[in-house]
Amino acid sequence: MIIRHEEPSDVCEIRKIVEAAFPTPAEARLVEQLRSDGDAVISMVAVQSGIIVGHVMLSKMDAPFRALGLGPVAVAPDRQRKGIGGSLVRSALKEAEKEGWQGVFVLGDPNLYQKFGFDPALASGFTSPYAGPHLMALSFNRPLPVATGIIDYAPAFAALG
């Protein structure tokens, strides 16, 4: 498997993967809106035998330090539970750290995302429409530059409801 940055020619295949991985096309529209708004910072694909089988995106966040939001992460249904999603997340986080981002937020299952270093306690001091036990943060240089403040995902996330 190869994990690489998204290329313009990948857009249609990414949409198919994201639509197949989620119950509605809302996340596929989110990916496209983040891209068109210029809020997508890191967008990577997993390729097996020349076929795109997964996608991950990190987008700009409104935060009191340089932060990104993780998501969506999508893997073709017939390739799920084989480590592709985890490899995508690790690769995207490595790229974010290399690019000098200070932290990443994610909204999701703590049992899943804690294995990548996300911690609900790191996010607990931040005010957000998404605040709660499923909002987690990861710091590349613990601790985060600040432990409190207002954060929000890119505007395109508001359409998810």
Automatic annotation (TrEMBL):
InterPro entries in the cross-refs: Acyl_CoA_acyltransferase, GNAT_dom
Origin superkingdom: Bacteria
Pfam families: Acetyltransf_1
Residue span(s) of domain N-acetyltransferase: 1-145
PROSITE patterns xref list: GNAT (PS51186)
Protein name (Swiss-Prot/TrEMBL): GCN5 family N-acetyltransferase
Organism name: Methylocystis iwaonis
